[in-house]
Amino acid sequence: MKITQLTKLALLILTLSIFVGCSSTSEEVDTGMTQEPEPTDNSQSEAEAAAARAAAAEEQARRSALATRVFYFDFDIADIRDEDRDTLTYHARDLAANPDRSVRLEGHADERGTREYNLALGERRANSILNYLIVNGAARSQLETVSYGEEQPTDRGTNETAYQRNRRVEIVDP
Description:
174 residues, alpha+beta, four-stranded mixed β-sheet, 5 helices, 4 strands, 52% helix, elongated
């Protein structure tokens, strides 16, 4: 009885093997290696066009980032906002690519707090950006920091919108 079951199993496997073998066409020979189709002139030009578009988009992003020179902070905070990190990375890369270039980081605070406290807060903010730029490729010799505290407000109002505009670091060419 065991021989009969083994024979049936062997016949079943053989039948399935023949079925699978016959299902492929003579054009489909699996060598175990995948082969990329040869690129045509059309697909090469499409790839080149896609690469050109990507390069143009990257250049536009770089220009936009480098045009952004003011970075805002939350109340009583010197930590860089997450949304500013990519922009600051472009600034760091630009400084690294241009070693003769230097910038001044001017820290500011709103009018709340004492004069001394706001000077220290503006300095912490400027140093926060300075450290980020150095970590991302800028040289320390290219960077200078100064704090104006509350002395140079952008907006002289006394509401939250004005305060927000005054809590900033500006990247300035000396």
